[in-house]
Design a protein that fits this description.
Layout (H helix, E strand, L loop, with lengths): L3 E4 L3 E4 L6 H8 L2 H4 L10 H20 L13 E6 L5 E7 L7 E5 L8 H15 L7
Antiparallel strand pairs: 1-2, 2-3, 3-4, 4-5
Amino acid sequence: MCAAVVETDRLALRRFTDADARSLLEMLSDEEVTHFLPLIAPRNLAEASAYIDERFLATYRAADRGERSDEGLPLDLHYAICRKDDGAFLGYINVDADEAHDAGYALVRSAWGHGYAREALAAMIEVARRAEFPYLT
C-alpha cells in the first residue's frame, strides 16, 4: 500500500496507483454506486487502468512537476480511500481545482452506512482549507 497522504482515525487517503485498477473497476461496475456519478464507468481492466491514468495519475504527474490551477490551487487532491487497519480499498474522494471546486466521492457499497464518507470528507475539507480553496461545492 502507498503511504497515506492524509490519515483519519480509521482511514488512509492515498494517491492511486496502477494496482488499484481492479478495485476501481469492481466499484464502478456497481450501478448503485455509479447511479449519480458524472462518468462513464470502465467496462474492463484495461479501461479501468486508463481511467486511473487519465483521472488520477496525470494530475499527480502535473502536480509533481509543480503545476497548479489558474488560481494557484493544487491539482492532485484525488485520493483512494482505504481502511487503515487492513488497507481495504473503500473508494475515492477528490477536490477539483477547476472553477467549481467540486468535492466528490464514491464508496464501495459494503462501505456505505459506516460514516466513512463523512470522515473522509471532513479530512478533505481541512486539506482544501489549508490549500486555500476559496470554497467547495
